[in-house]
Design a protein that fits this description.
The chain is mainly alpha-helical. It is 70% helix and 2% strand. The protein has a two-stranded antiparallel sheet.
Length: 389
Amino acid sequence: HSIGQEVVGLFCMILLTLTALVANIVVMVIILKTPLFRKFIFVCHLCVVNLLSAIFLMPLGIISSSSCFNWVIYSIAECKAVIFLNICFISASILTICIISVERYYYIVHPLRYEVKMTIRLAVAGVVFIWVKSVLITVLALVAWPHGNGATSASRCTVYWSPGAHKKVFVILFSITCFILPTIIILAVYSSIYRVARTASLQQAPVPAQAVAPRHRCDSIASQVTILTAWILMLPRLIPDRLLGSNKAILTLVLIVGQFLCCWLPFFAFHLHSSVPVGTMGGGHGEMVVTWIAYSSFAVNPFFYGLLNRQIREELARLRRSCLNHPLGQELCLSISEASVQENFLQFLQRATCTLETHTSCISPSPRNRLDQTTTGFPTPGHVPEESS
């Protein structure tokens, strides 16, 4: 490869690593700083896994992928440590994403059951399960690994270059437990969520003008005019917003599932293909490409699972305003049209599936949500009945 390609590749890898560091730290700070957001324990855990990967795994990936570090030689013990971190963090990240998908399913489709059963103890048990399974699958990869005082170059310290007949068995088992099964669960869960979103958007009736008068208003005349103007502009778009909600739901689903498949499908497909002809060793360039496509997941996860949530975005904006000493009074009177446009997929489905009795507990009492609560006199479409306990 030319020097220009090496420089561009090294720059992209470093930029991706720095993005993963900053984005995951920001989302973790927002979640941990505000008690309201501590319910996002699995999102926070995903950020922890991504941050550990950005600190340990991605720098090692830079050393293994760039020809600038061809002089780096690993001992057998060091090579085992690198493979341990690689497999463990990849497994923990994918399993956490799978659990987040299941959590969203219960949070949206069965909100009452979620409120009752989703306790701190259950969340901690889920986190423990993720790490136990990740460590076990990693130990399995190191079984029958050659022992001794040998050494290998950093670029060949991967599962792809691992010797022994156990490689094929491990790669197949690793792909099934850490990719194929989680992918099936994610697709099934988000398909069910989309059906609820589509049913809710089709059943949602236009809200009469008498029911949309806000109960909580700001004191200033300018704020009242802003809210009134927003409602007037919103009324003609009530019916099209039903289609907007459905399109937003499917677009968000496609983005979340598509991002997961784009990052991890090439990685596992490459290793499955490499394990079929046992003993053949191709070039390492293909492994480097699919590995960094997979590592990009550590940088984009905080955007898809953290900043995509409107509550986290609002808290980030509030922290930014407080750091810049901007007044908060006018921002509290945001128009309902802006709230409708910026409302993300989870809020849309949450409002569509929460019962009237749990409406105030399912939606945080922000100024925008206080305006939304004026419509609770109408039936909530798309709700999935809960079993009485």
